[in-house]
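[audit] Reproducing an earlier prediction to check determinism. Same input, same settings, fresh worker. If the tokens differ from the archived copy the diff job will pick it up downstream; this log only records the rerun itself.
[audit] input (516 residues):
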Amino acid sequence: MKINSSKVLIIDFGSQYTQLIARKIRESGIYCEIYPFLSSIEKIKDFNPAAIILSGGPSSVYDKNAPSISDELFKIDVPFLGICYGMQITAYLFSGNVKPAKNREYGYSKLEITKKSELFDGCGDNNTVWMSHGDIIVSPPKDFIVTSKTENGNIASFENKEKKIYGLQFHPEVAHTLCGHKILNNFLFNIAEIKKNWELSDFIEDKIKEIKTEISSDDNAAICALSGGVDSTVAAVIVSKAIGKKLICIFVDNGLLRENEAKDVVKFYKENLSLNVKFVKAEKIFLSALKGVSDPEKKRKIIGKLFINIFEKEAEKIKNAKFLVQGTLYPDVIESVPVYGASSIIKSHHNVGGLPKKFNFKLIEPLRELFKDEVRRIGKKLDIPDAIIERQPFPGPGLAIRIIGEVTAVNLKMLRKADTIVSEEIKKNNLYNKLWQSFPVIIPVKTVGVMGDKRSYESLIAIRAVTSSDGMTADFAKLDYDVLRQISSRIISEVKGVNRVVYDISSKPPSTIEWE
């Protein structure tokens, strides 16, 4: 990948939206990376950024051990943009007045632009923005000018043009802020004067050459764990183009997949993508290990550990396997770097992780610089069919985290049937590619019903369907009532043991997309 010096650095204070900022910047054709706030000034200078963005975060600047930065950072002669906590820490370090708000601003807010600013060029006088903060800036630092306020009269943005420092109390990176993309582009192109430099067109060719060089010996082989998802598939296809059949892919059927998914996906890999795939059936092992386990974190850890154990045993059977291919994405890389005192762990990452310390393979991660949407675009360039590329995200622990409580063969059978119905109806109504995810969840509650003039006391299923551009924020999908009625009717009629269906109308945040 050809990258020039016009790149952006994001300093992360633990915001759930930090990756979204990076995605938006890359969508604008500019390369960027994310460093935790504890990164040294030397490391930041070595990156040679053309602009620096300070992310939001869950802390207050007055918290004990609140995340902060050195005054030396602002001596770097580049434009700065502080977002939410990033604006507050900027105000605090320049002796502004930051205090806890009497009423926390969270959600939509009307923005009144009070002073002309390059940041708001082309945005009009009034805008809807997305707020998420508990502190407010009562007064800006000396020589900083307030450029907008919210309908509550609170400071929403300030700037010091001479120092090239700008601050936004709201989040321009989320879709809820209507002029957010324009604001970010104004900062990148007009204020920082950065030129576009991030193109995916050379990525595949460069990466194939790089892998050929790394796996240079004819005797060396590489292994890859395939899941059926877009990340591992694209990674495998790129490596396969570099080393051919010397890549051996392993597909572990953990018994937690959708109806017929394991066999169908493996057949597809072999016939459509010419991948060298070894199929491992391990359903009984996983179900036995999950027996009696209800806690979602325990379920994830059991599934992850078992997968690694099985994968290790299979890898040992492969001669000269010295390289391990993983579909690691840039968000995975970022999340593996702790943001001390800032990030909150919502749940363990869905992807298989935690490789043993003595796992004697050298990692090949062809996608580690990329976000999900970039991987999909590369997949299309590789002529991987839409059946894989446009596949809705599916969690690593599979259906185990869509069964609230213990995972049993009976629950799996019900959920697979319900999942098939949801998928069929969503696709029949041409909604599949318009939704980020759509799936059923089994709730550990039985309800009274009447079926065939008889009293029933059976299980409850919730339907979850969301729209999103990245999975970091999501709205519940406003599905047509006729579609919901048909899904409900079919599930109750065709899935034995279910007599009630409900629809989840919560958004992310505050809820997560998956229930566990």
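[audit] rerun output stored. Observation attached for the diff report: The chain is about 30% helix and 25% strand.
[audit] end
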